[in-house]
Automatic annotation (TrEMBL):
SUPFAM superfamilies: EF-hand. Residues 4-39 form the EF-hand domain. This is Calcium-binding protein.
């Protein structure tokens, strides 16, 4: 497992831990789902519902895989062991990636505009400079858009335990933008 991958998921854990108590709980995912779908300007109810369900599956997978004592919460040590294990988390992150990237394409043209991408990533909690660096790393076209598959694959790659030097590394503090 690469240090870069651990840094990436450490950041996501801190963003998902909405109340800052050091654990992920169902309420954290409900709050994040609400924030992200509220930022999805122009997206229809089916896309928002798919995102809500993807957040719900993300939590359900973690709870099922990791909450051995059934206390309804997951620590960082438990989290990193699951999300960086492709055999345990790839299907869940695939669903999440498809739902989030689809939210960024409300008109269905297969391209995501920088403004909506930024709004969605801000709703998750990433910093503006890092969001901009990530979008640029995805290689926007002349209309300042990226493709839905580019973002979806970038999300999946973010959770790859043996990858470094990927666009998602721009989301981690201290990475030059």
């Amino acid at each position: 497992m690469r240090a870069e991958a651990v840094s990436r998921v450490k950041l996501v854990f801190s963003l998902l831990d909405a109340d800052g108590n050091g654990y992920l709980e169902a309420e954290d995912f409900d709050l994040m789902s609400s924030r992200v779908t509220a930022a999805a300007h122009g997206s229809g109810a089916p896309a928002k519902e798919a995102m809500r369900l993807a957040f719900q599956r993300y939590w359900t997978t973690l709870k099922t895989e990791l909450d051995a004592n059934r206390d309804g919460r997951v620590s960082f040590d438990e989290y990193v062991g699951c999300v960086l294990s492709p055999e345990r988390f790839d299907a869940t992150i695939g669903e999440f990636a498809e739902a989030l990237s689809a939210l960024g394409d409300p008109d269905g043209d297969g391209r995501i505009e920088r403004a909506l991408f930024t709004d969605l990533m801000l709703a998750i909690g990433f910093s503006p400079a890092n969001i901009d660096a990530l979008f640029n790393a995805f290689g926007p076209d002349k209309d300042d858009r990226i493709t839905v598959p580019t973002w979806s694959e970038g999300i999946k790659e973010y959770y790859a335990p043996n990858r470094a030097g990927i666009p998602g590394d721009h989301l981690v503090a201290g990475v030059p933008s």
